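User: I'm new to structure prediction. If I give you an amino acid sequence, what do you actually give back? Let's try with this one:
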Amino acid sequence: MPLYRDEGVVLRTAKLGEADRIITLLTKAHGKVRAVAKGVRRTKSRFGARLEPFMRADLLIATGHSLDVVSQADSIAAYAGPITADYDAYTAANVIVETSDKLVTAENERTVAQYRLLIGALNALARHAHAPAHISGSYVMRALAIAGWEPRLTSCVVCGGRWDAGDVFFSIPAGGLMCARDHTPESRRVPAVAVTQLRALVEGDWPVLDGHDLMPETVRLVEDWAEYYLERPLRSMRLLD
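Assistant: Good question. You get back a string of structure tokens that encode the predicted 3D arrangement of the chain. For your 241 residues, that looks like this:
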């Protein structure tokens, strides 16, 4: 079988037979890859813990007929250790990898921007750089923005009028803010602080976010935006609720 080398992050795993696992990865050069790690569940596995969720590894993979096969794995960054030691970081990491898994649907298609965003988010969680909820919320909104679903948060999507301050309406199907004059029936009124926080999540504006909890309205906007454009709920975010 032909071999290829790439680096990747483990998004999830599933048991296969008595000792194997199917590993779902997001890789730098080959996009999403599903591969079998043979014997990984044995105590003397040569892979050790390098193919657990949140781990970033250098991989040698053999191309298979239905599933590829991991032939070698060397650790690049052990994000899993510090993440799993902190409950909030662990729950945020689950939101991140679930989003990545659902957002990147096609296999073996290069998605460098998504990969860089993923390792940046997991690295920030492992370093405790910011509040876990801020990191996961920012990751969700920025990953969707890279995919083409960035909300308009500076002006009304109907008339184009600029938004500066004060409560405003927000429509997920329409793609962003709406003014009081032009808002549609399905839009919801949101406080100005929630809009400011949502914009900071999209832009990665940490000075605005650090030191403040996300408003419940902001969290709900992130969850509903993701569910609408992914066309399925994020179970990890619902568990947080």
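You can read the tokens as a compact description of the fold. Here is one thing that stands out. The CA atoms of residues 70 and 110 lie 19 Å apart.
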